């Protein structure tokens, strides 16, 4: 089923294009693409198809696809929904490699539309012709002047080619972001909108654009993902090649998710899982359109800092403080200048603040050599990986701006490998000049800091992926479980197949002596009912803790078995479990759930009030290694509790990571058999003493029962 | 000492202005203001003072202030630091009412500068002349064309008068925000920068601008506040008059706070306290410059929604979902349209999504009457207090834009009382046209939602201040404590003077019978050392819990007294306390600390891991009433714990609020006597059962000891 990425080449890089439904009116859906293809510099053949006309927009037109003098690489269909299926059949019959379907009125509109869309998908599948859409705005490849879109934003001006690719499910969002990028002077090489995704989805488009040499950053937009494997592969390839994917995924809120389902047919998995998967595979999630653009803009140079030391140059204390606040919030390190360098700067201007932010005061505006010395000292002696200068509206003055540019060029010469950024407000042509000098320019200082922090994030993510990773712990394929499992069975299975170490425990059959079994475990013990049919043991009074001797153990077993028989007469009763009372440690929870998009996903969190009140949990798609598990554990807000607070010892985080990774491998290897796993609680014991999962619940898939 | 607000009238609304150090060069500090006064339309008299010239910029000049034909209302000093003190003396001698000192080189620069600044402050104090600065950019009052500033941003164009006032400690920030406001088409009536604040500070400037009829919103910037009472008064008056104060306060982070102290002389109190005080008195804290501007822009119409129901109109599902996500994050209620109205909209366009976001699809772009019907239905039937339409770059098209404007005007006619906003990207002149039609216009949809949520926040804050508030619980002035207090003394004092109900307890002197006393309390009890010199009782083993009978109580008392004598031989020992063991409830903490800026401040938080790991605490300046205490309690992240989780009963939040309010009244009434109070833990018992403060530590001020 899965086609190789190169199967999209005819779509993105056609040598010839047929436009079915070509129109003379350049404002119409069938007229715009033709105008764009004519005026955009496309070198290939363009064939208008319109049975009613001899020429369209001055170009010779053809009555049908069959009548074309050659087989076009791509056919763009600007025909109404009801004519689409037949037009696509004609294309397939002629052997066209790829088609773009603009028309709406399919799965998003009605049941009838859904059926028609299924027909389109069928044609694609049977013929091998790749189909983009329906209900999409098409695509463009600016480098070859190929504009296969009717997006109105090109009416005013074309988008210049550049290092950015746009991959968007939504045509409106894709258009808007292209408009904003153009305003920002940011070139877009490849741009594609996938619409209803009957064949080509965001994941596959992403996979293709990542392979293009000129693409340095991708701005992606989706409401959900269809093809998990291609998606993860695209993210992994991008990360390996140090190409940044900046993702805007909507449907964070309940209202938003509801609107997603009423809007498109995309399966919206849990937003928290999607969020975690992006992080896990190194894609950056933007929260707003402004951030989407700012971060992509910063990434477009492909320059990622080797560390997070951040030097701030300012002419006004207030601006410097504000940026230092932002830096702190974003995890950038506004480390002070070395003492000796501070002394030197102080000697030049006694009332300057040379620490960091380095405040040369308004004096530097009139004494530009002073500014040069200060900035050069920061780059030479401060060891900053990132530098920002705050200039407000100063550069807007045409007379002053030229002098300031020269000053900044001189001061930063030889440091082109650093990330150099300016916060300033000026007309576009002045901003372009500073950008050409090598500076990233942001109007808002907070946006600057956030985007620079994103560069640091990408650098760390690229490096983490390259690091020699420990081999994933082994796991075993299990036989399909025959129905529900008891706690004891679940633990045995996870111990054997996943290598998870549970504390020793004894299963005591109803006719066996609970006293002796408990004694062998060692008092005090906890006694629990063991039944595949009783998942919530406390509800029937099926747990007795603090059992101190053999007599109490026998009593407890008797009591529990009686309660179970009484309250769940139909339940299969395996007996009771006697297990040691474990003291100390920090209560955590771990589990596996099946995400509709990403399949088995591991959840981790702190137990008790943290999960109950604060929902302080985190996710990762299975499988993942121990390093990823470490990152996962460090993400929770209450992480400090695992490091020890109030004099408590630090816990065995390594063992916790090992357990989560093993669990993930097991979940991935047996994905089709397992609906969910709960290990709750898992006590994280003091460092060196491991983890103690005290309970296990494994729910097999219905198909596996 | 405190001067009435009207004492700033001559500064802000002068009838005549002297410019000391006037210069012919309009790019110089002494030339710019003269040019601005000449060209800005100022109707009053302008007197250049320059002993070396007969005319300056073509105006007759005077050799000295003494030589002026009348006493000017205000003197603007554009003279170097070393000439400032003498020039100010001359002004004071002449009886000038107000002066502006531009020059830097005072307290911010050196010890010598600090002494000179003290001299300036002395002149102001003695003469009653109000002094702005030094080290400031001055001020302007655009309505009367009075530009007493050398800010370079006016070189290009004046700032139009309007409903915004700017009050900024930082001249650079004040200039930048004025530049951005001008770009946004936002008029600024009053603009003032306070610099080193030797006399007039941000608080007093704020107090003055709030009194001006044309001011609807204030953009304030400060690194810290000097005059707490004037500041709080300004915030309260603004709130009572429904004028929005949007505050950017820097120094959130450690690095930032460090830079504050190296930058100006402002006392930077705890940022968390400042944050809480802004919230308490109804000022909105902006986190970024962009947000500062966006929120002020939204407030500038003085239109605050009666509720938070938010209708979203979109032509593209994706944009709608994104905005719904933002709305949810900001607390706006994207409530669905009534079912019947949805049916009607669906009947007009079957594949629309009429719920909310209301998605009329791209169809509405070509069918504008459909758009009219949809939007009109939202306003008429949706009950939305706020409305946003998402239009991307569509309005940038000059031909389409006029039709769209007409459509929106028709659709919204008669709903001018609603907050109507558009997310769109277009050239400034097009944006202005939509604004004139009554719409707030934002380029970024997330910024739009955030600003609209701020309007809702202001409305609630205005209303809360107007609500009939319960009388503050009474508190008593206490006699200055003679040194440190024991736990028992602290509790007695707080019980008597603040009305805080502690569980009954017995103080057992060393020679009394602990057994009988404990029995009177009722077993089990906890026995604790009672000494004014032992604040941390557990450190010496001074607490024994779970004491079950008289013999155990006597043993416990003996043991504790022996430990205390052994480990703290110098401590005064009052005896031991026997108090009941309280079960149940949720552990909280309450306390009082002295903030260097705001004086006594009450702290509240959840106990245990919440405060240890998550620092989940909140503050309020004392005193405050029960309603404010309720808001305070609701602010903590772990609030759900107080409402009951995992089947636990809801706690007595009313009693908690009552206690916090009482504590605040006590702290305010005895502010100069109390360094800190700790009530830790305070058990919040089930609803109706009150709160149980189990321990009290009261540290008197050193001066009170």
TrEMBL record, chains A, B:
GO terms for biological process: tricarboxylic acid cycle. Pfam families: ATP-grasp_5, CoA_binding_2, Succ_CoA_lig. GO terms for molecular function: ATP binding; metal ion binding. It comes from the Bacteria. SMART domains: CoA_binding. PROSITE patterns: ATP_GRASP. InterPro entries: ATP-grasp, ATP_grasp_subdomain_1, CoA-bd, NAD(P)-bd_dom_sf, Succ_CoA_lig_flav_dom, Succinyl-CoA_synth-like. Residues 492-528 form the ATP-grasp domain. Coiled coil: none annotated. Keywords: ATP-binding, Nucleotide-binding, Tricarboxylic acid cycle. In the N-terminal section; belongs to the acetate CoA ligase alpha subunit family. This is Acyl-CoA synthetase. It comes from Bradyrhizobium manausense.
């Amino acid at each position: 089923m899965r086609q190789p990425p190169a199967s999209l080449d005819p779509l993105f890089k056609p040598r010839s294009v047929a436009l079915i439904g070509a129109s003379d009116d350049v404002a119409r859906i069938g007229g715009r693409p033709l105008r764009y293809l004519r005026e955009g510099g496309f070198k290939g053949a363009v064939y208008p198809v319109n049975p009613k006309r001899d020429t369209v927009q001055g170009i010779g037109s053809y009555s049908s696809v069959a009548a074309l003098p050659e087989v076009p690489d791509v056919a763009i269909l600007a025909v109404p929904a009801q004519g689409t299926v037949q037009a696509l059949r004609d294309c397939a019959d002629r052997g066209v490699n790829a088609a773009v379907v603009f028309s709406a009125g399919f799965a998003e509109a009605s049941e009838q539309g859904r059926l028609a869309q299924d027909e389109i998908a069928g044609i694609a599948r049977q013929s091998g012709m790749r189909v983009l859409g329906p209900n999409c705005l098409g695509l463009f490849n600016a480098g070859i002047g190929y504009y296969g879109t009717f997006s109105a934003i090109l009416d005013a001006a074309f988008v210049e080619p550049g290092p950015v690719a746009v991959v968007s499910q939504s045509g409106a969002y894709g258009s808007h972001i292209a408009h904003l990028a153009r305003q920002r002077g940011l070139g877009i090489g490849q741009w594609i909108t996938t619409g209803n995704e009957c064949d080509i989805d965001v994941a596959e488009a992403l996979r293709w654009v990542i392979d293009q040499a000129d693409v340095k950053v991708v701005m992606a937009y989706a409401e959900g993902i269809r093809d998990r494997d291609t998606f993860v592969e695209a993210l992994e390839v991008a990360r390996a090649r140090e190409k940044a994917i900046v993702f805007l995924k909507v449907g964070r809120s309940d209202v938003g998710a509801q609107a997603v389902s009423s809007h498109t047919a995309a399966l919206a998995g849990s937003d928290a899982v999607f969020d975690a998967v992006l992080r896990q595979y190194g894609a950056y999630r933007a929260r707003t359109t402004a951030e989407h653009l700012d971060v992509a803009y910063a990434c477009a140079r492909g320059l990622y800092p080797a560390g997070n030391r951040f030097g701030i140059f300012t002419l006004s204390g207030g601006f410097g403080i504000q940026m230092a606040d932002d830096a702190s919030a974003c995890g950038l390190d506004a480390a002070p200048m070395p003492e000796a360098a501070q002394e030197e700067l102080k000697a030049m201007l006694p009332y300057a603040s040379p620490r960091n932010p380095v405040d040369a005061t308004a004096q530097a505006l009139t004494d530009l050599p002073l500014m040069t010395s200060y900035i050069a000292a920061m780059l030479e002696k401060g060891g900053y990986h990132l530098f920002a200068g705050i200039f407000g509206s100063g550069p807007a003055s045409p007379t002053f701006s030229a002098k300031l540019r020269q000053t900044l060029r001189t001061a930063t010469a030889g440091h082109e490998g650093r990330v150099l950024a300016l916060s300033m407000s000026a007309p576009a042509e002045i901003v372009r000049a500073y950008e050409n000098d090598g500076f990233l320019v942001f109007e808002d200082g907070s946006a600057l800091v956030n985007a620079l922090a994103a560069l640091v994030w990408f650098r760390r993510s690229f490096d983490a992926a390259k690091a020699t990773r420990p081999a994933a712990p082994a796991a075993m394929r299990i036989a399909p479980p025959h129905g529900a499992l008891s706690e004891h069975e679940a633990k045995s299975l996870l111990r054997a197949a996943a290598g998870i170490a549970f504390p020793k425990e004894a299963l005591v059959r109803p006719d066996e002596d609970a006293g002796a079994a408990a004694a062998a475990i060692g008092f005090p013990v906890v006694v629990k009912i063991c039944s595949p049919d009783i998942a919530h043991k406390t509800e029937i009074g099926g747990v007795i803790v603090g059992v101190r001797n053999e007599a109490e153990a026998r009593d407890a077993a008797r009591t529990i078995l009686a309660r179970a028989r009484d309250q769940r007469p139909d339940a299969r009763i395996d007996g009771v479990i006697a297990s040691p009372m474990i003291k100390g440690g920090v209560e955590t929870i771990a589990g596996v759930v099946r995400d509709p998009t990403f399949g088995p996903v591991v959840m981790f969190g702190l137990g008790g009030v943290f999960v109950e009140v604060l929902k302080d949990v985190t996710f990762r798609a299975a499988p993942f290694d121990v390093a990823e598990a470490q990152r996962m554990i460090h993400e929770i807000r209450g992480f400090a509790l695992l490091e020890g607070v109030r004099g408590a010892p630090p816990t065995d985080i390594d063992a916790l990571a090992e357990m989560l990774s093993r669990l993930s491998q097991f979940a991935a290897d047996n994905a089709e058999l397992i609906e969910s796993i709960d290990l709750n609680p898992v006590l994280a014991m003091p460092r060196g003493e491991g983890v103690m999962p005290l309970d296990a619940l494994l729910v097999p898939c219905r198909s596996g029962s």
